[in-house]
Amino acid sequence: MNTTALELLQAAFPDVPCTASVDAAVLTVQPAQLETTLSRLKNDPTLNFGLLLDVTAVDYLDYPVQQEARFSVVYTLRNWEKNMLVQVRTPVADPEIGVPSATKFWDSANWGEREAYDQYGIHFQGHPDLRRILNHWQFQGHPLRKDYPIEQGQICYESDMLEKEIKARLAQKGVDQTLMEDINTEIMYLNLGPSHPATHGAIRILTALDGETILANINEIGYLHRGFEKTAENRTYNQVIPLTDRLNYCSALMNNIAYAKAVESWLGIDITERAKFMRVILSEFFRVQDHLVCIAANLVDMGGLTNYWYLYNEKEASYDLISRLTGARLTSSFTRIGGMYRDFYEGWEADMENHLRAIEKGVNDSLKLVLKNRIVHDRTQNVCVMPAEKALSYGYTGPCLRASGVPFDLRKDNPYYYYDTFDFTIPLGSKGDIYDRVMIRYEEIFQSISIIRQAMKRIPKGPVTISNNNVTLPPKAEVYKNIEGLASHFKLVFEGVRVPAGEWYDSFEAANGELGFYFVSDGSGRPYKCKVRPPCFYMMGGFHEMVEGEMIADAVINLGSINIIGGELDR
Amino acid sequence: MALGLEASLGDTVLTTKLDAVINWGREYSLWPFVFGTACCAIEFMSAAASQLDISRWGAEVVRFSPRQADLLLVCGTISYKQAPILKQIYEQMPEPKWVVAMGACASSGGIYDNYCTVQGIDTIIPVDVYISGCPPRPEAVLDALMKIQDQIRGESVLNDRHKDFKGILD
What ipTM score was computed for the predicted complex, to two decimals? Predict the structure, then answer.
């Protein structure tokens, strides 16, 4: 937390309690003042919180300390230019009445508030489309409430037609049905997904077409909702790590690192130097992997199958290093709270260098097919444009935001693990079209490779976990030979790492954008609440803005270019 | 050297059993429908890529229309929201059809024992082969494919498969 931000907020809101929590300033307001507070945070030029990162709620039913109300709603906002982060919390006395909606300030509030409504049953007054988003339409109750039993599944017998919603969107876009009939134009409704080769997972894209042109589009997600947050509440902090693998499964280790960093930031743990460099090397390596899959799949959608072999084969080869290091190909679970599971193996440097060279070759081969390819240019340039202002309003982060020309990258703007000492640049787009999104990923691959090479030169020797028996498992020799070691091993395995009570948010620049974790701890070894701020959830929320007015075939490649990963989208 | 009936029909005619010849055709031309929802689908991509090359078993023609497929590969977690879609896809596939549950989630719900995850797709549709692992290695997909081929070899083309199956959505 930079102190100027806290002072600035205290000066701006003298009668609102303002505290600091990790990187964020926390404002606690009553529902009546919520709207004016949010409006001021957004519109005051000195505050200028243009990015609404996340909306969630907390249910304090089982919380050991009595709170003002059972529920509270939490808005996480960021001023990306000045690196200021603020959380606005407001108690909700009656969830049926709820709080005023923030959709008039930020477009990202639309899906964020829908999720809070779906999971906690909190009403948002003035929300244009308040209905379930992750759970199916026949679901009864709200699963993240503490009195909802985790194992109580509810069967869905048929899918929602979404007829009302698509008609409403058509009306919003100014398409008059009777006029269309008068000029003998039939609107065709076309459903892509949830099981469709172009949806890269399970997303439903419902379009209303005039010929091949998309008049209106609405999207339904939640087909891969697997209850990450409810499951996490029933596990110790270290047991959540395997669940984080399965958020963005194309770059699993990066999620592990982001999660461990978020917990460590609250515990105040400074991990060892070697562990920091390991995390830099591995997260950049996985950023490369993620971009390889994204570009490969996207170019296949465009019809460039050869690119798939050039790019995907290098990823496949990289599994040799990854599985030798972590024991698994895809789901690594390689971090622990307080460091890494284990050190690199003997001779990893040579393997890594070979892989990097192979990846460079594969990417350069692929670029030869793409860079001067007229077909690729015509299909991607000026297609599905996302202007910067709209991208910010929809909560875009990562490569997709940078494609729109906004130079925001947490590695530069809020550096961790010595990122400020590495020599790398942030590629920026000029238009925000599909071409920019693809090309930025190509360039980021080269930048990441450069960071890995720099880190490999600088990585020091030493342990990879801290030696604190309250956090990391003691060495086996101690466990077997003395009672203290045995006791702390036992307690860590059964009770988990005890995390002081409190609430905090911490974020990480993942391959897709800002991956944040918001925790509520009651002081025990299990998170009371663990909310993920997934980058692609908010990108999907703005998908309709990109594709309306474009061709149906453009929607397909646009979906590939924003890199939607089901595990992270639906959690 | 032909014997019996074949001897009287000349050099160009073979006799065999209907089961043997049809099953021989079926087992080497499985057209998979990849119902990929999660992490397992990425491992299926590896099984299809050049290093492992699923076409060595004649199953590289991945169809995304259920009407053109006879092997349903369920790769990933199936939520209750997804379940009616999976059932619909299965029903749209023409007979004969085989189903592989790839990975822990499709087989049993895996690590997700909670309010939104179906505890194994065999509560919705009949399954022929299960693959363990979270996610399974791509070699395991090839192993499952060979198991399906074994099954096909042992079946009679006259019998209907899974006639009496009743799932939670029926």
Answer: 0.85
CATH of residue A100: 3.30.460.80
Evaluate whether A85 touches A76 at the Cβ level (below 8 Å): yes
- Nearest chain A residue to B39 by CA distance is A249
Peptide bond into A534 cis (omega under 30): no
Is A306 in the B-facing interface, judged by CB distances under 8 Å? no
Distance, in angstroms, between A535 CA and closest chain B CA?
A: 17
| φ and ψ at residue A426, rounded to 5 degrees | -105, 110
Give contacts of B111 with chain A, Cβ < 8 Å: 231, 242-243
Number of domains in chain A: 2
Sheet holding A24-28, edge to edge: A18-21, A24-28, A84-92, A71-79, A51-59
Residues 44-73 of B with CB under 8 A from A: 45-46, 49-51, 64
Tell me how far apart the alpha carbons of residues B45 and A186 are, in angstroms, rounded to a whole number: 39
Digit-coded pLDDT (tens) for B59-84:
888 888 888 898 999 988 999 998 99
- Which domain does A468 fall in, by range? 228-533
Closest CA to A284 of A127, A454, A129, A138: A454
Sign of CA dihedral B35, B41, B44, B49: positive
User: Which chain A residues touch B84 with a CB distance below 8 Å?
Assistant: 156-159
Query: What global pTM score does this model have?
Result: 0.90
Peptide bond into B96 cis (omega under 30): yes
- Report all structural domains of chain B as residue ranges with CATH numbers, in order of start: 31-151 (3.40.50.12280)
